[in-house]
Each structure stands twice: as C-alpha cells, then as structure tokens.
Amino acid sequence: MSGVLADRPLESLRGVGPKLAQKLRDYGVGQVEDLLFHLPLRYQDRTRVTPIAALQAQVEAVVEGEVRAADIVFGRRRSLVARLQDGSGTVTLRFFHFTAAQKNNLKPGARLRCFGAPRRGRGGLEIYHPEYRHCEPGESAVEERLTPIYPTTDGIGQAQWRKLCSQALALLASARPLDLLPARYNQGFDLVAALHYLHTPPPDAPLQLLQEGRHPAQLRLALEELAAHHLALLRLRRQQQSVSAPALPRRQAAHRDLLRALPFKPTAAQQRVMGEIAADLAQRTPMLRLLQGDVGSGKTLVAADAALQAISNGYQVAVMAPTEILAEQHRQNFATWLAPLGIAPAVLTGRSKGKARRETLAALAGGDTRLLIGTHALFQADVVFHRLGLVIVDEQHRFGVHQRLALTEKADAASGRPHQLVMTATPIPRTLSMVAYADLDCSVIDELPPGRQAVTTVLIDAARRDQVVARVATACAEGRQAYWVCTLVEESDVLQAQAAESTAAELAEALPALRIGLIHGRLPARDKEAVMAAFKAGELSLLVATTVIEVGVDVPNASLMVIENPERLGLAQLHQLRGRVGRGSAASHCVLLYQSPLSQQGKRRLTAMRESNDGFYIAEQDLALRGPGEVLGTRQTGDMNFRIADLTLHDDLLEQARETGELIAENPLAEEQLVRRWTGEKQRFASV
Ligand code: ADP
Ligand code: MG
Predict the structure, then answer these.
(1) Which of 125, 396, 415, 595 is in Cβ range 3.0-4.6 Å of 118 for a Cys bridge?
(2) What's its catalytic activity (predicted)?
(3) Do 661 and 231 form a contact (C-beta atoms < 8 A)?
C-alpha cells in the first residue's frame, strides 16, 4: 500500500503505546496496514431498537424500556434481576455478578438501553449480563453501522480493536492504496470499498452471507489473497530456478540393469513418470517435481530410478522420510534394487549416535556414501554433503516447505542447486495443489500394479468386537497376516503406547495360538526394526500397532486390517492405513471397528471409506468434510495461513485466482506489492 500506510508503525496511532504495540505484534499485527486486514469474525446489529415483544431467543438485539422492578433473588445462584418493560412487553435482565452501585442504579423507573442475546427462562425471555446504559426517552443515536466483533487475544478488548481499525480506515482516505486487482475481478468492490464495508457494514448488510464468508466484498479480498499466494509460490519457484543445477542425463545401461533385475515389470504409469523425471534431471534448471500416486502405486521404485540417475552421474542423493520405520524400509528397498549396481545406501536418523554417526557423516562428506536415507536428522548442521545432486522427500505432507528447502540448502555452492522430487501418497485435490504446490510440476502415477485386489472395507460396531477377533483368528490360521491398529485422539506417545500395549495383551489372551507383535512410537528403534522384520518374515501373524505404521509400511502377505475407533481419524489417514493391506495377491479386508453412536460426519466419513478405494475421491471427500488443514497436514496449512480466504469456502475462486495472478504478474512491481501485502513475513523463506 503506497504513501501514508506503507510501513507505518503502530505507535503512530492514537492510544497505542509500546505495550499495546507489542501485544499487537505478538498477535501478528505488525503495522497499521495489517489492521486493515484484521477483519471481523461477525457483526452485531445495534442499528435499531427492537420492541421487547419482538425479541427472539439467541438473537442479539438492542431494546429500550423502563425498569419496573429490580431485586436480588436467592435461587441456586444469587442474582440481580430487573424487569424491563416497553410498550410491547417485558423482558428479564439477570446479573450473576454485580456491584452495589449497579443495584442502586437499576431502580424502578430508570430508563435503559440494553444489548444482548435473550435466552428462554422459566418466566419468559431473559438477557444475562446485558450491556446497558441509562438513556433519555426519545433518544435516537443507535449505531449507524453494524458493530464488528474482531478476533482477539487476551488483553485487547473489542472497543480497542474498533478504535484501532477505524483509525486505519480513516488513513485510507489519503493513502490511495494501489488497487492491484483488475477491475473485472473485483466483484463490484475496489479494495478500499471492500475494507470499509467489511469493517463497518451498513445496517441492511446481508448478515447471513457475511457469516458464510460469501459476501462479494469478502470474495473480492479472498480472490486477491489466493492470487497472492499463488504468485508467492511461483516466485519461490523462480528463485529456486535462478540458480542452476547439475545436468544429470539418464545413463541408459544403469537404468536398464535396474529394471531387468526387478521381479516385476513397471506399470505404464511408472514408466511414463520415470521418463518425466529423467528428462527433468538432464536439465541445468533444478527439477521441482511433485510425484503423486495412490498408496501402493509404486512410487519408491520411481524414486530409486531417479536416485540411480543422479548417482551414476557422480552426484549424491538424500532421501528424507517422516518416520524411522519408513526410513529403514526405504533403506531395504533401495538396497535390494541398487546394491547389485554397486550402490549401498546409508541411514541417518535421530538414533544414529556416537562413532557410528561420525563414520556415516565422514563417509558422506568424503563422497564415499552416494545415497543417504534418513529422517529429520538430515537437517542437522553437521550433516555435510559432497556434491548433493538430488533431494527426494517422501510423504511430503509431513513436512513443510521450509524443511524441504532447508535440505536443498545443504548442497555445496560448487554443485549448484540440487534437483527436488517430492512424493505424496495423500492425493491433493487439484484445487488445493494450485495454492499448496504451485511451485512444483506434477507427475501422477494413475495406475496400480496389476493383480492388486481392491480392499473390501466393512463397518462393524465395537459391540461386536468378539466376532472381529474370531475373524483375525481365522485369517491367521489360513497363513495370512493381520494388523490391529489402535487409535487415540491424544497426541501423547505415552498414552498411545499404553493403549496399544493393553490391546496387545488382551488379544494375546483371546488368541493364545497366535504369535503377536507390538509396535508403537515409544519402542527403541532397534526393537521397532526387529518387530517389523519379524512381521515381514512371517514370524508374527498379528501386529498390534499405533498409527506409526500409517505411512509406507509394506508387507504384501498382510491381508486383514482392523482399525479401532476409526471415527477418530481423518479420511486421508484411514486411507493411508488401509493401504497397508491389499498389497499382495490375496483378497484383502479392512474392518473399521467403530464406537457407536457415530456422529453424522463420522458416518459420512466411514461410508466414504467403505464405498471407495480411490485416494483421489477420498481426498476430495476429506476436503469437503474436514477442510484443507486436514488434507494437507497442519505444517502445510500453517505455511499458508490465510487471513481471509478459506479453501473450504472459496475453492470455487481458485481458478479465477490463478488467472488473476497471471494478469498481475505481467507487472512485476504490482506482483511484488501484492505478495508483500498478503504474505508479508512469510516471504522470508522465499529468499533462500
Ligand atoms: P507407494 O507408492 O505407496 O510408496 P511402494 O513403492 O511402497 O508404493 O510399492 C508398493 C509395493 O508394490 C512394493 O512392494 C513394490 O515393490 C511393489 N511394486 C512397485 N511397482 C510394482 C509393479 N510395477 N508391479 C508389481 N509390484 C510393484
Ligand atoms: Mg511410499
């Protein structure tokens, strides 16, 4: 915003001292301009006086009348009760907390104007703790505009917000801010008009529409914000690609050797995607590619092929996985496929310690290790690469943009920017990927390996748990393997581990003939590995687990999964879990052992699981039912952090936002301003 508002400090406003300014900054309002975009959550209508007889329960209103009686009533709780009457009727005002002065003021005959939402009481409508003041008969002066209610934090009151925001709005008159949106996209509101409207709507404003976030003034701002985010990602992409990467052309012989040694033939989709990646890697422009493919579609092989291409050009590859279990599994897979070609992967996790860790790091820095697989531990400062050419991030939804970039920064200056391959098994609805992944090209594996059986999903009430236990017994007796997944709402590892432990003990008692394993996040990594290895080798028939097995775990002989309390999980997570079965040739089943009664939403979610095995369909449902935060993972949405736009409400604006963004981008100065206006602080990561 140009002129008066640009970088204007908060302290320049009336009533803002250092203390309030600090509070505002802590809350994320850093300068005057931010106040303009601090929009009300809802509005109160204090623009007219409602006759008492017309009051409705739960609907806030202004009433005016005369106090008829005021008494302290000793009911279950002591309260001060006043009866307020106008020509049309009477309403009760009730105060549970009051001062002696208040009681003296509410004398019969006093004239009051009150505001509040009535509720139904025994003797008609009552307003608890109304705002009120004394007034004169015939006094007009109700508010002229709807009263905004702002989102707030401890220690900043509504009156304060109103004063601050109205000062900021007043400054707009002389600020002449740049309206960056082409007129035909502005829904009838230029920027200033939209801001004025939303901070102080006129009395006839459609409250319902505002509440739903669908008022044209809101849509106009949301569109601008979405366009800004889209552009911010494209800038990020340009910045990433402003540094060149090593050109790593495919070495045909190595590629052929890899495929020849496989016990299966890659699907057409895998081959196509491997081709796309191979072509990217051959360029001097850093690859920025998102690989999407449903659970079990075979992304790991594609990653291994990419790794091979980089390594056979003399460069290093880092593979980052969200859990130790998955990192270990990747190590095994990559080793199986690449060891015959002379490539031995090393692993680095939080558990790597002491001498072993030092040796791993030395081999990496010296260039002997060509392929390093690990968890967040890869970010540690002393992890130094030697010619890092490719970064592969598996299950991207577990990481944020910053983390991905932090890893690419580990490349030494001489080798340039590494190529990036980002893989996700949580398919991203197209609309979402436009704002969340606009910086990435996208490849999709839209085909599962042949012979995969669709997993049959059934919903069973926890009251019939015994039948499910019997079913596990039967499946295992037939030589198949099963998972029993315990879920808890609490994030606490300890509680989750306890729940899994007690379930395992219970099942061991009910199924004495079975060999049962237990895995959860609290186990030492070595034990986790041992349990997974035993399960994979078929030495255990039943694996009781927490959601640690959610991603990546691959044991084809497991064909039954029981998920306890599935109603607690999101669809994407359930789909991930369910993807652990149906990997072999046996018909597979997933039992959702729910706790009744199910909420409407819970019912819809579980039904969607029963009806579909298609990750893309399920992701769309998840988006509709739970919103983008759940679909993308909190990290990602945290990165986005919209002020006005809400992807659930405004997904229909995304296409327009992209168009708008493209138009604005034709003017680099406008683009810069737009991105700064909406994404401000967060742009820091873009400067890496
Ligand atoms: P995801 O895409 O979920 O990461 P994985 O890469 O773990 O899937 O692959 C799942 C399983 O399918 C693995 O056991 C893998 O070896 C196997 N697989 C991969 N591609 C094929 C294929 N074309 N034909 C048969 N099996 C395959
Ligand atoms: Mg995978």
Answers:
(1) 125
(2) Couples ATP hydrolysis with the unwinding of duplex DNA by translocating in the 3'-5' direction; ATP + H2O = ADP + phosphate + H(+)
(3) yes
